[in-house]
Amino acid sequence: MLFLVATSLSFVALSQTTNAATQTVKSSRNLTFKQITANNSHRLGTIRQLTRSQIATDHKLTGKQVQYLASLPLPKRLSAKNFTIDSQNLTMYLTKNKLNVKTARIPLSKLSGIILNRYMPSKYKFKAPVSSKHKVVALTFDDGPDPTLTPRLLKILKKANVHATFFEVGSSVIRYPQISKMVLKYGNQIGNHSWNHPQLTSIGRLKALNQIALTDAAIYKATGTLPEFVRPPYGAINSSVGSAFDRPIIQWNVDSRDWAYLNTTKTINHVLATTHNGSVILMHDIHATSVAAVPTIISTLKKRGYKFVTLQELMQKPLLSNYQYFGKNDYRGL
Asked: Could you confirm whether 216 is annotated as catalytic?
């Protein structure tokens, strides 16, 4: 039975981080989120999710506590002032919650491009990266982990010196946690692809949030980290469901159709014919024919002048919550 995040739970108190705060910028106590984010609700949503991630990093949470993070009371109004900024951190002052966490200190290094530069120390100010001379592309794989095919794919990627993002299904993560751990060990990223792959827009906001919260808990238990991104099954998302996640929604602009072809040659030909500069390629690490297609796809695209990059490198800016990202320079609100 799925555990609903709204259910009342009994939690033991978490020990508080006792690191001494550095000197607080005097004016920061009078600032609002509206000021430091340029009145941008997407940036505030990103700060909320970074707060959850920081709590998960600073405290050893149980599965139910990780699920509760999704409903942790955090500021939704841009007029809120329950934070301070010093030379190293943004400190969030939390209202009463079931985790008994009072503060969360987010390193400013994680907030570059999210907080306006005028409120950041020089070393953390966001600088737009120099455009690459290469054509760029990002590889993504859905529906794993698979106990046989995912390790095989990881070795292929490592040999080619390519990293990818794996959008994993929670029900598989709890069966093969060591594979999820291996994905990160090989330098890749893990995203949330729901618990058991329903169409999230057809099950309602609360059940959809539960799908994401359960998978967060599974990935956290396996790897010790929370996934930064969500990819909804079938790409199906709307504002009601997507706004509950407080995360970037990663879509794609090249569908390999490996799930339909189940044929290595057809998958290769389709990807090579449809990939362009700035593509996010959708593939699956649960089909042997898909994994077999990857070496040729990588080697051919490299010969054509493509460089394989992470999602952040592709977008050349921080990925903000409640935006859908389809490819380079192609992001849309929910």
From this structure: no
